[in-house]
């Protein structure tokens, strides 16, 4: 293809790309960065064709300059995205949790209150567990945490190479519970309240029953590690759902649609943080919680340290003025 025809076909693209570059270099047009990588790759292809076909040095130099400027903008925006993500993890998410403390407190009372309350009731009145959990499932739970079985949190022993499979399973299972608790908040918050109470009752029933039958050490040493992240995540997912429900119940001077839109922005950010916590919880559950080699005291100390870490992170991270935004 002759150079004149090549330029005629692609000149409009180059001019459009140059215009976009100018906007990005002046801090504008950030909303269009999503399609920028594709345009940049196409420009690189045009440069390669021009060099291969031996077009004029003027055309090649012009394209090279555009490619160089595009490269700088592409990776500058990628770095900014990474900084924004890091800022959210290190400061933005815990700040948001503290900002939404009313919903977090309400969700925590529902979840942890029902959990601890029903655990105590089942411990004192063992037959209550069968009102919530079928007998077959109770028997399966006992086999999972029987101290003489030689394994924790599962019905059979598994090879270490299978831990990654369980890691994936835990992620999907926990995210499913969290999303269910969050999304059901659209039912005027009643759905989130129901799943917070239901999950609290279920976990409490298991805890109370296993402690009553003498399997408490096996159970508590298993859950104390990943529970810091997993249980906290369920409560925070419920808080995000309650916020959605409250926007529909009490929109204030806004329309319900507008109130829901504003509430959803922060609720979705909360869920993003919850996903991170659940990822950590799944990793700990797959690779640490089910281990039988560590002594019980080691498990308890590590678990206590993880609970302290989560509490410190949510209560104090991002308070310094210089913390990343």
What this model shows, in words?
With 325 residues, the chain is mainly alpha-helical. The protein has 2 domains: 3-75, no CATH class; 82-316, no CATH class. It contains 10 helices and no strands. It has helices at residues 3-25, 36-52, 57-99, 101-124, 135-145, 163-183, 190-212, 216-249, 256-289, 296-316. Helix 3 (57-99) packs across helix 9 (256-289), helix 4 (101-124) runs parallel beside helix 7 (190-212) and helix 4 (101-124) crosses helix 8 (216-249). The two termini are 51 Å apart.
Please give the share of residues in helix.
over 70%
The number of distinct helices, counting runs of at least 4 residues, comes to 10
The amount of beta strand, in percent, is under 5%
| Spatial shape | elongated
Straight-line N-to-C gap: 51 Å
Strand/helix succession: HHHHHHHHHH
Beta strand count: 0
What is the gyration radius calculated from CA atoms? 27 Å
Query: Main beta sheet: strand number and arrangement?
Result: none
Instruction: Count up the domains.
Output: 2
- Structural class of the secondary structure composition? mainly alpha
Pfam families: SpoIIM (PF01944)
Transmembrane segments: 103-125, 182-207, 219-246, 267-288, 300-318
Protein name: Stage II sporulation protein M
Keywords: Membrane, Transmembrane, Transmembrane helix
